[in-house]
Design brief:
Helix content is 24%, strand content 18%. By secondary structure, it is α/β, with parallel strands linked by helices. The protein is globular and about 50 Å long.
């Protein structure tokens, strides 16, 4: 079992539990923000080309869309991303990597604010 598959399985269990807690609600009516460590889509990765094949897991994207996510916050690639694809805003506010010092980033609003 791969690491992304393991976490997708955990997400699936949580999503099923949520469906039992809120069975009558249409997720499209919710203001849902989801998060993951892994990139949910390969097209969000713009870094080193050799890593593209291991960046992004489409199963994560399917899960967040099934939950009706409007904003998805993710990490892993150490690259800033603020992009909207088919009604979902994807945000990564990277704090640096092992080659760059931790920069003095300010917090980033992901809901109810204009993009900077």
């Amino acid at each position: 079992l791969s690491i992304p598959a393991f976490f997708c399985a955990l997400n699936g269990a949580t999503a099923k539990a949520m469906a039992h807690v809120f069975p009558a609600h249409d997720v499209r009516d919710w203001n849902t923000v989801t998060c993951s460590h892994f990139l949910p889509r390969r097209d969000l990765y713009w870094g080193y080309p050799a890593l593209r094949k291991v960046m992004g897991d489409p199963k994560v994207d399917l899960q967040l869309r099934a939950l009706g996510s409007r904003v998805h916050v993710f990490g892993h690639s150490h690259l800033d991303v603020d992009s909207e694809v088919d009604g979902v805003r994807y945000v990564q506010h990277a704090l640096g990597n092992n080659r760059t010092p931790q920069l003095a980033y300010r917090p980033k609003a992901v809901w109810g604010a204009t993009r900077e």
